[in-house]
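Changelog excerpt

This revision adds worked examples to the README so contributors can see how folded entries look when concatenated. The first example is reproduced verbatim below.
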Amino acid sequence: MSDTEKDARKYLIPGLERGLIILMELSRSHREMSFAEIVKRVDIPKATAYRAIQTLEYMGFIRRHPSTGLYSLGVNVLRLGFEYVASLDVVQVGQPVIESLRDKTGCSSHIAIRDGRDVIYVARVSAANATVRRVSVGTRLPVHRTSLGRVLLTDLSREEFEALYPEESLPDNEPGAPADREALWALVQEDRRRGYVIAESYFQFGISSIVYPLYNHDGEIEGVVSIMVPVHEIPAEDRDRLRVHVAEAADTISNLLGYQGHAGGRSQM
């Protein structure tokens, strides 16, 4: 351990740290876990883990199933997450806009933000006949593998981009995704010049998307708005119409956030 890490750790509260480790493990597992499994996964002494779990259960952050005795995340964890999402101005002003966007396009519509190397969906509305329900509020996806993430990266300088991706190779590479950092940077620069992304079967085969940036009053990218089109390729006769609707929604939300320009760039294609 480096001296810097030692200095940082001397101010930590061990009990709080261990409680948060348990919460993060339960969050990652997406399922119920026994006490023994939790102890094994977090590598914390049984007595310490027991006290942490009892505290978290008392405060409503985890719950114990009355029949099986298994533990899962409690309602207070969900409340914290939804209160965070609800506190975002982009969600408050954007929700009715994406509902209108859904009605105009017939496509599921979303608002997402970037958290480090993840895209987080913070608002969504489903099309009436939607058969694909891949994402929900709170879903995280890798920035570099999604069209939404590419648009979110267009606000970064080269220095900021390299700080975010210090490695030359990108994690969790899959067919269709950029092979390395330079390939991603090249894509992002094309996206920046264009001002939006139309991605066909980019993240998932048979699902296309149209994505525009959302700007705040400082002209910085606050998030993105998108529609999900359940086709491999968007028909030529629909492409411009759908794109204009997304561009208009982006302009509306950005203006409500205090941006004075045109976020949508409707004249481009």
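The second example, added in the same revision:
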Amino acid sequence: MDLTVLYRGPLASCDYDCPYCPFAKRRDSTEQLRADRAALERFTGWAASRTGDRLSLLFTPWGEGLVRSWYRRALTELSHLPHIRRVAIQTNLGGRTAWTAEADLDTLALWCTYHPGQTPFERFVAKSRRLAAEGVRHSVGVVGLPEHLDAARRLRTELPEQVYLWINAAEGHQYTDAEAAEWAAVDPLFSWSRHAHPSAGRPCRTGESVISVDGDGTVRRCHFVREELGNLYDGSYRAALRPRTCPSQVCDCHIGYVHLETLPLYDVFAGGVLERIPAGW
């Protein structure tokens, strides 16, 4: 089986306090962190054991994972396994990056987001430059709020040329054509994010070759559809995998709509679907 898995454990703590994020400056208790570590290690063990499958893994924690040693270790260990096609994580890049030297850079990738006002611009750019120089595959992105436009333009100027800079349309924000053109000058693919995509009744790879898994092993087709398909650890989910259409009216998040079969995004991002890097970038 060729399977893409989006994993989101109980971790919900973050060292940033972005005003557009409900998990800003949230702290998990010691007990919660232990539970997250145990859940992640269980998932990592499952992934390592699936040698008969080809797996692509994306960690999408609510909080910041790379400040925790168990996420860094999981990414490193999984990157060396021959049946893991890709292992990636969404991160604010606030933590140290030296650990990537121990990973297989043909498999590891990072989906990085710059949050203006949360970390010095120069520090963030220096980290991206260092990752690029060391051959660590990564994309960088910014939430497309009006007050972030100057920072995004500056990022595009100062980031390594080979690093793709994506722009996420801000939740609830409507863009005029003139505003959209300004963002598209930074990210030529911004049009895919500008509007929510109609999805009701349209075929989607989620629930067939893409699944979402939580810390207990509950499998759903994606993060945005709550129907359960079974459990990862008892294998009950496998019998439920089949072609499906989307039950939601629209899909407005990249990690969801990128899997819609009615959109050409598997071609647009060929080889970089999980880390959000366009083909040939």
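Reviewer comment on example two: The chain has a mean pLDDT of 95. Helices lie at 30-49, 69-79, 121-133, 149-158, 177-184, 191-194, 254-257, 265-268.
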